[in-house]
Amino acid sequence: MRWTLRYSPEAIQAIYQIPRAIWQAAKAAVWSLQDNPLPPNVQTDEADPSLYWIPLPGDYVLYYSIVDEQHLVRILDME
User: Fold this and answer.
1) pLDDT per position as a tens digit, 17-37
2) Number of domains the chain contains
3) Strands 4-7 and 43-44
4) Residue ranges of the alpha helices (H) in the chain?
5) How big is the CA angle at 46 (ends 42 and 52), to the nearest 5 degrees?
6) First CA to last CA across the chain, in angstroms?
7) Dist CA 56 CA 27 (whole Å)
8) What does pTM read for this prediction?
9) Nearest to 11 by CA among 27, 25, 35, 28
10) What pairs with residue 43 in β-bridges?
11) What is the mean pLDDT of each run of 10 residues along the chain (79 residues)?
12) What are phi and psi of 52, to 5 degrees?
């Protein structure tokens, strides 16, 4: 079963601010969370273990959380 991706307003704004070429390369990593929300390169946030992050191309980082009950991945921000 695939997970649903839900983007926060901050994540949507970040998508528009990231250079287009980098977003084209990064979106495959983001979309892969639908199949596996805990990929091998995932890290937990030290301050809040319920938040996860993965590195993206161009020295960007994707922050997200997982809602198991709803089979949902919340894309929180990209920096």
Assistant:
1) 999 999 998 999 999 999 999
2) 1
3) unpaired
4) 9-17, 20-31
5) 30
6) 29
7) 9
8) 0.93
9) 27
10) 53
11) 96 95 92 96 94 95 96 97
12) -120, 160
Give the whole-angstrom CA distance, residue 49 versus residue 26: 23
Partners of 69 in the β-ladder = none
Whole domain around residue 10: which residue ranges? 4-78
- Strands of the sheet containing 51-56, edge to edge, are 4-7, 72-78, 60-67, 51-56, 43-44
Q: What is the pLDDT of residue 2?
A: 94
Distance CA 75, CA 23 (A): 14
CATH of the domain at 19: 3.30.2310.20
CA distance 40 to 42: 6
